């Protein structure tokens, strides 16, 4: 699937005497802002703006290139426990891993996403980007709230859930989500849960 500034190419290579015509399904608007400028001006990305500044990712998101930012909204940050959020925001390495897990290495418009597509993030992890009917999905969940906000250096999709990579989780959080949750309970009963957190 070929797109031009996130407009789908419907018919290509209509040759005319003075050039070539490609038919697309949208009017192409002028794009002037970088991804960083979109983050700075969008009210619903206030928490993300602070996180990006704290992790020194500003320069990357305003540099030349073609990236996809899966931008967690304020609502996405509010969904995770305050204690977990404060821990990640206070740990520069975990914060950088978290944000890099939301940045894809290439610009990916919604029109070009097909079911079962796996994309690599800047963190080196992968995300399953797909679609279910008209809805875009991430790791099988329809959590994309707003799609195809174009920037000069890529595209931004707003997501309403935070995608926390394993590298930004404590041992306790990882254990709770895995097959060793009973062992976690034993650590807690033995008064050793602080070692896992």
Automatic annotation (TrEMBL):
Superkingdom field: Eukaryota
GO CC term, one of those recorded: extracellular matrix
SMART domains: FAS1
Pfam family, one: Fasciclin
Domain FAS1: 1-28, 32-163
One GO MF term attached to the UniProt entry: cell adhesion molecule binding
Classification via InterPro entries: Adhesion/Biosynth-related (IPR050904), FAS1_dom_sf (IPR036378), FAS1_domain (IPR000782)
Gene Ontology biological process terms in this record: cell adhesion; extracellular matrix organization
SUPFAM superfamilies xref list: FAS1 domain
Name of the protein: BGH3 protein
Organism: Menura novaehollandiae (superb lyrebird)
